Amino acid sequence: MKKIEKRAIMCLLLGLVLVAGVGIFSYRYVVYGADWASYEGNRDVYARGDMKMGAIYDRSGELLMRNTDNGMEYNSSSSVRKSLMHITGDKDNNISTGANRALSDELIGYDLINGVYSLNQEGKEITLTLDADACATAYNALNGRKGCVGVYNYKTGEILCMVSSPSYDPANPPVISADDTSGVYINRFTSARFAPGSVFKLVTAAAALETLDNASGITAQCSGYEDYGHGDKVTDLAVHGNVDMKEALRVSCNIYFGQLAQKVGSRNMSKYAGKTGLDSSYNIDGIETTEGSFEFPSKGVNLAWAGIGQYKDLVNPCAMMVYMGGIANGGEAVNPYIVVRDSWTDKLKSYLPNNGVKTTSMIETTTAATLKSMMANNVANNYGSGMFPGLKVCAKSGTAEVGGGKRPNAWLVGFLDSEEHPYAFAVMVENGGYGTSTGGTIANKVLQELVR
Questions:
Q1: What is the pTM of this model?
Q2: From start to end of 10-124, where are the E strands?
């Protein structure tokens, strides 16, 4: 009898192990099946080591790249090819964010039921949310300078423009030496991070509005510099006099926001760098963005500089764009995506809460409204509405010092306050000088193309 009991227990344990194993495999199949199918050793997908399946189109149906037995084919326009090289990839597969790497499971038409099987074995034609003409406009506006431009719909999450420079023609790739330092292979919009400069003041402002009493009424006296002792100073480009938050944001007063960071405190500054998504990574249909990096000392001049967007602050441009979308969208940021889904998937989404749009709560609705009003004031009473003719833009510029005798990085971030064109944007030009003039010109050209 005891032997039967022991055998029964052993059978039960083996059964449990089997069930657990099937459960683990099923989970891994659902989560990692696409990666297994698109593994480079899969002969059904790759020929001579190269992808031979699938094509990608922009949102209007314009061909961007097609895989064939004879290699990769591209758009007929060299400007479009160069502007989207970091998305389409090149013939030598050098680009980590290129389609044949990041979107390989989409291109081969993988699904849980059929795997990579299809009747014609030609893979899948996928449509991206990108606007090829807007991307070409952004690339041309960068004019060979290192930098990036991103625009997305802050109501739906569709990325309309994603451009990184420098680039090259993927149909005619140049020979790039091993000691090249241009970073041409890097998608600066998704895979890099930069000192944010004054655009980070929008984070410090949000932290103050939600942690301090009557924060918008706090004032500071700016004499062009503030001495923190031991020779440590926060400097400014001008003497701004007595300013409150709205005026300090308009003139981008370093003295004010250095003092404000002291009042908010290092713990809350760190908390809001996280709440606003700037220390997070976004998964954009297989493209993982780089996390931001921050350090907020307990007090003193370094905390002041960190609150101004300097010290050790590093921000990913895509994350900054999403934060702009959060401000525009009443504090709820819609996560970005780049692949237009199949019709049956879209129908399924229509039954989900908020139509399946994934959102992240960043700041309170009242905070978002206050920042929105202040950013509109920046444009109307500093940058000038003529910078964006016909557009209702809310924005903040940034001039981020990088040291080494180099010109500062130029930033402009913001959004259109428009129900018809709800677009948030981030423009960053390395060593571009002043954010207002450099970033504003680029942003205007791209936005005008999108709303045209």
A1: 0.88
A2: 46-47, 50-51, 55-57, 63-68, 71-74
131-152: b (≥16 Cβ within 10 Å) or e: bbbbbbbbbbbbeeebbbbbbb
Q: Express each pLDDT in 124-178 by its tens digit.
A: 889 999 999 999 999 999 999 999 999 999 999 999 999 999 999 999 888 888 7
Instruction: Give ∠ CA 238-242-245 in degrees, rounded to 5.
Output: 90
Q: What pairs with residue 164 in β-bridges?
A: 148
Regions in the chain scoring below 50 on pLDDT: 29, 33-34, 36-39, 41, 43, 48-49, 112, 117-120, 347-356
The pLDDT value recorded for residue 350 is 45
Residue 322, token pair as written in the block: 């999403």
What pairs with residue 315 in β-bridges?
194
> From CA 159, how far away is CA 141, in angstroms rounded?
18
Q: What pLDDT shows up at residue 153?
A: 97
Q: How far is CA 85 from CA 72, 93, 114, 163, 175, in A?
A: 12, 11, 31, 9, 15
Q: Can you state the angle between helices 301-308 and 201-211, rounded to 10 degrees?
A: 110
pLDDT tens, residue by residue, 375-412: 999 999 999 989 999 999 999 999 999 988 899 999 99
Q: What DSSP designation does 332 have?
A: E
How far apart CA 274 and CA 263 sit, in angstroms, is: 18
Q: Are 203 and 276 in contact (CB under 8 A)?
A: yes
Contacts of 100 (CB under 8 A, 6+ apart): 50, 51, 67, 72, 89, 93, 107
Q: Which one, of 287, 238, 224, 278, lies nearest residue 413 by Cα?
A: 278
Q: What is the DSSP string of 275-311?
A: HTTTT---EETTEEPPPPB----SSSHHHHHHHHT-T
pLDDT of residue 334: 94
**Residue 212: how many CB atoms within 10 A of its CB?**
16
Helices (DSSP H) in 167-292: which residue ranges?
188-191, 201-211, 245-251, 254-264, 266-275
Both tokens assigned to 75: 């758009």
Cα diameter, the chain:
94
